[in-house]
Design goal:
The protein has ten helices and eight strands. By secondary structure, it is an alpha/beta fold. Strands 1, 2, 3, 4, 5, 6, 7 and 8 form an eight-stranded mixed beta sheet that branches. Strand 4, helix 5 and strand 5 form a beta-alpha-beta unit. It is globular and about 55 Å long.
């Protein structure tokens, strides 16, 4: 088994403002491109499962199969286990793992799924090679990642422009690639995958409730999460600048005409039989 080579630092951490976003994610709003390909008997590996909401949904969709959720952070797996237990799921388990060196034999899973993972890892091509190794011939690798530079909003906001510039600088300093969505196909080709279906999807936040939720979690994340700490410690921003960005988020969230769209790249790769 190859040794792990993780060199990136997870930019967001697991502050409450981060988990507020992660626990909102479902298979329907975050993996719709994969769902038509699922069968009830499939064995699925969910990489970077976080608090387990998507993992639990996948387990419900393969009642005669099994889903394994893995994450590099042991602490978050306790929440994932609680999520699955609360829904009475018996066909799901969780483990600590590094996507660069998965502790599973070749050709183990029918589907390997990763949502918002490759933007945070040190070697996304190696990660995709590992996914390819552990998926069965004829099986699927499903990957979805946001593309920060492609995010767009209304009305124009210098404060949100500053947020985007700051976030991309911090993420890259941590060893990740915040504009991963547009790179997924290129990374898959470099990993030796050839049967690749490429799509894109969006999240849109425009209602008063959506704006309040999205702006609030980013305002809080800007001030109190691991991302905020890394922005200051890395010399990318000072406390005053972070407060200005957080205020810009809250001002945008209060706008009746506010609109925000997050673009995601998606790839569905079938391993050669």
């Amino acid at each position: 088994m190859p040794e792990p080579r993780e060199t990136a630092v997870y930019t967001h951490g697991h502050h409450e403002s981060v988990l507020r976003s992660h626990t909102w994610r479902t298979a329907a709003n975050s993996a719709a491109y994969l769902l038509p390909s699922l069968g009830s008997h499939m064995r699925i590996l969910d990489i970077g499962c976080g608090p387990g909401t998507i993992t639990a949904d996948l387990a419900e969709l393969v009642p005669d199969g099994r889903v394994t959720g893995v994450d590099r952070a042991p602490g978050i797996l306790e929440q994932a286990r609680a999520t699955a237990a609360g829904r009475g799921l018996a066909n799901v388990d969780f483990a600590v793992a590094d996507v660069h060196a998965l502790d599973y034999p070749d050709d183990t899973f029918c589907v390997v799924h990763a949502h918002q993972v490759l933007q945070h890892v040190g070697d996304p091509v190696r990660a995709l090679r590992e996914m390819k190794r552990v998926v069965r011939p004829g099986g699927l690798i499903a990957v979805r990642d946001a593309d920060y530079e492609a995010m767009t909003w209304y009305p124009a906001s210098g404060g949100l422009d500053a947020w985007l510039d700051l976030y991309r600088r911090v993420a890259r300093a941590n060893g990740g690639e915040p504009d991963a969505g547009r790179r997924l196909k290129a990374w898959a080709l470099r990993a030796g995958l050839t049967d690749i279906t490429v799509t894109s999807g969006t999240w849109t936040f425009a209602t008063p409730q959506e704006r309040a939720w999205w702006s609030g979690l980013w305002a809080d994340r800007t001030l109190a999460s691991a991302y905020a700490d890394r922005a200051v410690e890395g010399g990318h921003a000072d406390e005053a600048e972070l407060r200005g960005v957080a205020e810009a988020w809250r001002e945008w969230g209060a706008r009746e005409d506010g609109w925000f769209s997050v673009l995601h790249g998606e790839i569905l790769c079938r391993k050669e039989a």
